[in-house]
Amino acid sequence: MALTLIHASVGVAQTPSGTPNRDDPVQYGAYVFRAGGCFECHTDTKGKGQPLAGGRGLPTPFGTFYSPNITPDPETGIGRWSEADFVRAMRQGLSPAGENYFPSFPYTAFAKISDADMRALWAYLRAQPPVKQQNKPHDVPFPFNLRMAVWGWKFLYFDGKPMIADAAKSAAWNRGAYLVNALGHCSECHTQRNPLGGLKSDMMFAGSTDGAEGKSVPNITPHPATGIGRWSEKDIADFLGSGMTPEGDFTGGLMGDVIEQSTKYLTAEDRLAMATYLKSLPPIDHRPRKPQ
Ligand code: HEC
Ligand code: HEC
User: How far from each other are the two terminal CA atoms of the chain, in whole angstroms?
Assistant: First the structure.
């Protein structure tokens, strides 16, 4: 399959779902990279683009954003960046020139990535082959195209704080919370947004009618009727590994991409930790439907 070739070319095929080796920053970084779903957004898979060279269109209600080239090419990628530039982009949503990134780059989630994982991610990105490919300008109309305006948005919706482990909860729960909220950025699609594009904080994970590409995204809180309350932890972990629902259907589309490019590479233990966390969320009664 074509997808297998892509995996091989980014050097992750050697480390499918084995336990990541934390002593080797590049190999461990490959694991963090998968958990963060960087490949999906930064590779124009449909246009047969090179891994991480950007150019994937991300349609949103505000217009279409195009992901940039994050290979180490010095002219068109991030080859001239220092590690500090990278950390600032990921944690503060700021470019080396001090400009705001649009929140279509999910730095609201990535700000919570641990120091060790951030370092490994940088080591992995540096070790990838450089690709020369110019970035495509975003196709986003005024006023949403203003980087200055993102200051206001950040003030309202971005806290930039690291995650603090909850000592009252199990290690698995804490690991799951980290994978879902910091790396997996699952709420970015699974939560309804307000008209300014901020996540509705009382509706976390309860699904969205205007998810990426304008489709509706299901409720993944444990509500028995409108969420995934009937799924066991194992059902959720299996779904994140294979894309098969407890009813035996296979998911496709955007969630198919998330599984194919990200969660299926995680260890069974990590997928189960994510399930433990999701099952602990407050159930919210909400069935996202597109207005007719
Ligand atoms: C949901 C899609 C999405 C995901 C997932 C994503 N990115 Fe991005 N990223 C973007 C977009 C869009 C931009 C450009 C934002 C802008 O122009 O303001 C961006 C910008 C960047 C930049 C700045 C590049 C530059 O030239 O200024 C870096 C670095 C980056 N992303 C790294 C990552 C890493 C590492 C991951 C995985 C942990 C990741 N991204 C995951 C969409 C994504
Ligand atoms: C790019 C958007 C996107 C992201 C990111 C995303 N999802 Fe999804 N998810 C979807 C869509 C769309 C569906 C519906 C797929 C379908 O109908 O087959 C879905 C379906 C699901 C389902 C099945 C729900 C059901 O009722 O059938 C689960 C569980 C799930 N996602 C968990 C997650 C987790 C955990 C993460 C974070 C690792 C995540 N998703 C990240 C878009 C996304």
Answer: 38
Residue at a domain's end among 162, 178, 207:
162
How far CA 245 is from CA of 205, 238, 270, 272, in Å, comes to 18, 8, 18, 15
Instruction: Give the distance (Å) from ligand 2 centre to CA of residue 88.
Output: 29
- H/E element, 63: strand 63-66
Identify whether residues 147 and 10 lie together within a single domain: yes
Within 6 A (CB) of ligand 1 lie 36-38, 40-42, 58, 65, 67-68, 70, 78, 86, 89, 95, 101-102, 104-106, 110, 121
Could you tell me the residue range of the domain that residue 63 belongs to? 1-162
Report the sign of the C-alpha dihedral through residues 209, 214, 216, 222, in that order: negative
Give the domain-ending residue among 116, 147, 162.
162
Predicted local distance difference test score (pLDDT) of residue 13: 34
Show the tokens assigned to 54. 């950007």
Give me the pLDDT at residue 8, please. 32
Q: How many domains does the chain fold into?
A: 2
Is any atom of ligand 2 closer than 6 Å to the C-beta of 188?
yes
Predicted local distance difference test score (pLDDT) of residue 162:
87
pTM surpassing 0.85? yes
Going by C-alpha positions, the residue among 247, 246, 250 that lies closest to residue 259 is 250
Same domain, 67 and 10: yes
How far apart (Å, rounded) are the C-alpha atoms in residues 138 and 142?
11
Cis peptide before 195 (omega within 30 of 0): no
What pLDDT shows up at residue 290?
61
For the chain, which ranges sit under pLDDT 70? 1-19, 212-214, 290-292
Q: Which amino acid is at 248?
A: G
Cα–Cα dist 245/251, whole Å = 7
Q: How far apart are CA 113 and CA 33, in angstroms?
A: 11
- Side chain identity at residue 182, one-letter code: A
